[in-house]
Design a protein that fits this description.
heterodimer; A: 9 helices; B: mainly alpha
Chain lengths: ~220, ~240
């Protein structure tokens, strides 16, 4: 138990913590960014071709339901240890949240607003970029917030495949490569990062939609 | 490694009788996985269902729902699991404790959201006809909230099965053992086969919940309902 509170070791390894925190942040940002690049076009397409909503969310739902350790293990023999495997897994967990929120956001644009834009001569592309997306943005950002916080938690599991960010501290502390205090430091920093990301994106949501204090998919 | 020979190795793993018998066999490991999942779900539901019903019915202590949701979202299951195993020692207790803590938020939130969303006019009408408070909860609020409550149980189960898999990293049993042992021994066929089994189990249970959800959805009100009730499911996310 002493090792769990070995603050002396902790205080001399701040650079290690900073490095792992940096890796955690960059793994998270990359996953959410790639997730958005995939989810946005799919959502826009699905929004216009309604029949596809069921099948698309079903596929994303299957990916979402597979336990993370199993998903990484399914990829491992093909993509090997490292960033590729980590990111493919992390990105696939963001898709359900991002697609659902984007489609719900686009659906929430009032029909009379769209009518007005049409009356002003907007074509499909203008309607999408100047009316629908701006109005759906708060709900899309709510999705980005949920996806980001989820990813921060899941990054820790990638310690198993040689990455992990703060999860590396946890696993190394658990396996006695570091004193056990590393587990505690990893956990506390990971919670702090999640809380910070949640706060920043919630603030972003409010700036984008000052008229509604509550996002559709947020609590 | 990803040569055609690899898939043959996986097929060989699945067809080897050694992997299907004894306490390290697939049936025994699956049972371990299910038992620990059921234990955690039972404890979590035993706590979260009544508390969620009470808060939703009485509309008191509603701040608890938001706080539990926020905490649940920020906690990484992997770190929590390793910390509890260090503090309590190897065994099932720290694993079940982690799984229970992570299962409570989605069940609590969805139960609250479901019960609280019931039309107040329907409740007034029932009370006017002399229905007791317990009758209002049991005959009106719960049937109307069943779909959302099941969605919460479903998300919690997904989380719990994932954490049960991670438990193998911390010395636990269950199907995650094949993944962890396969990795440690450089046996990719075992690692991959274990992952297939875990994924199949998770999807089978997920599918069962989806079917149950469909069974309790009243057909007459399906027009505008799905989008509205589907959202709370994602309020709590998964960390495993």
């Amino acid at each position: 138990m002493n090792e769990l509170f070995d603050w002396e070791w902790a205080s001399t390894h701040l650079d290690l913590f900073a490095r792992q925190l940096g890796q955690h942040v960059s793994l998270t940002l990359l996953a959410v960014a790639i997730g958005l690049l995939i989810a946005l076009p799919i959502s826009i397409y699905v929004h216009r071709h309604r029949r596809l909503y069921g099948p698309v969310t079903a596929v994303a739902g299957v990916l979402y339901s597979i336990p993370s350790l199993a998903l990484f293990a399914l990829l491992l023999p093909f993509t090997g240890l490292g960033t590729d495997t980590a990111e493919i897994g992390l990105v696939s967990y963001t898709l359900l949240i991002l697609i659902r929120n984007t489609v719900v956001g686009l659906d929430g644009v009032p029909p009379d607003v769209k009518e007005t834009a049409r009356g002003m001569g907007y074509d499909d592309r203008q309607l999408l970029w100047r009316v629908e997306i701006p109005l759906a943005l708060p709900v899309i950002v709510a999705g980005v917030r949920l996806a980001t916080v989820t990813t921060i938690g899941l990054v820790t599991v990638t310690a198993f495949i040689g990455k992990g960010g703060l999860g590396f501290l946890m696993l190394a502390g658990f396996r006695n490569l570091f004193p056990e205090v590393a587990v505690l430091v990893g956990l506390v920093l990971s919670v702090a990062l999640a809380v910070l990301a949640e706060g920043l994106l919630l603030a972003g949501q409010r700036v984008l939609a000052p008229w509604s204090r509550k996002g559709v998919a947020g609590a | 490694m990803s040569e055609p020979g690899f898939l043959a190795e996986v097929v060989e793993w699945f067809t080897d009788p050694v992997n299907w018998s004894g306490s390290f066999g697939v049936p025994a490991r699956t049972l371990e996985h299910l038992q620990i999942t059921a234990a955690a779900m039972a404890i979590a539901a035993g706590i979260a269902l009544p508390v969620g019903m009470y808060i939703g019915h009485r509309r008191r202590f509603e701040f608890l729902i938001v706080s539990v949701g926020n905490v649940g979202r920020a906690l990484p299951s992997f770190g929590l699991l390793l910390l509890f195993v260090i503090a309590m020692g190897l065994g099932e207790a720290p694993i079940v404790l982690t799984m229970t803590l992570l299962a409570i938020p989605p069940i609590l939130i969805n139960t609250y959201v479901g019960v609280q969303a019931v039309d107040p006019d329907a409740l007034e009408a029932a009370r006017g006809m002399g229905t007791t408070e317990l009758g209002v909860l049991g005959r009106i609020e719960l049937p109307l909230a069943a779909r959302v409550i099941l969605a919460g149980l479903r998300i919690a189960t997904v989380q719990v099965i994932a954490t049960a898999t991670l438990a193998a990293v911390a010395g636990g049993g269950g199907l995650g053992r094949y993944i962890v042992d396969g990795f440690a021994g450089g046996d990719d066929a075992q690692l991959f086969s274990g992952a297939v089994l875990v994924a199949a189990l998770a999807l089978a249970i997920d599918g069962t919940f989806l079917l149950l959800q469909r069974l309790v959805t009243p057909r007459t009100t399906s027009s505008g309902a799905p989008a509205e009730v589907a959202e709370p499911v994602l309020v709590t996310t998964r960390g495993g």
